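User: Hi! I'm working on a homework problem where we have to compare a predicted structure to a textbook description. Could you give me the structure for the chain below?
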Amino acid sequence: MIKGTIIDLTPATLDDRQKVYDWCFHSETTKSHSGPPDYPESPFPSFDEFYDDYADYFFTGAALADGRGFIILHGGEAVGFISYCSFHLKQHKSELDIWMNLEANCGKGFGTDAIISLAAYLGETMEIREVIMRPSLKNLRAIRSYKKAGLEESNQAPGDYLLDKYLSVYGDGDYGAGETALLTKRIVR
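Assistant: Happy to help. Predicted C-alpha cells:
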C-alpha cells in the first residue's frame, strides 16, 4: 500500500477490472473525459478494448516496469483509480492516468494526493525521473488538479518522451493532435 496525505493506494486486482472500467466509461464522471457530446474524438471503448489497453499486468503486478494500477482509497472506501505506464516511454519516464468513481469524490483533493503519492513512489522505487499526463485540453478540472499535484504544461514534442516505435500509435494522445494537453513533473530525489 502507498500512503498519501489523505488517500491510500492499494494495488488493483483482476477482480477490480470490471468496476474500474465502469468507473471510467459508465459513471457520472465519464462525461468529463470521454464520449459525446463533449468528447466525440474519444468514444467509449468496449470492455474488450479496455482489456487490451489495460492488460492483466495492470491488475496483477506481473510487469511492474511496464505499468500497474491502484485503487484510490479514502477512509477505506474506494474513490477512484490511478495507474502508471512506462512500456512506451523513454527511460526514467512514466505516464499517469486517473479517474474518480463518483462526482462526489471530485474536487476533494483525492486525485491530487494520489498523483503526488504515486509519482513519489515511482521516483523512490523505480528510478522514474519524470511523469507525464495527457488529458484533453477541454478537461480544465483535470488540468487544474494535475497542476496542484506539481505538473506543469509543456511544449515538448512527442519524440521527447515516446520511444520511436510508439510515436505513430501514441504521439497524438487520446484526443488527437492539438486537442491533447501535455503536463510534466520532474521527480527529484
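For your comparison, note the following. The longest strand covers residues 77-85. The first helix runs from residue 17 to 25. Good luck with the assignment!
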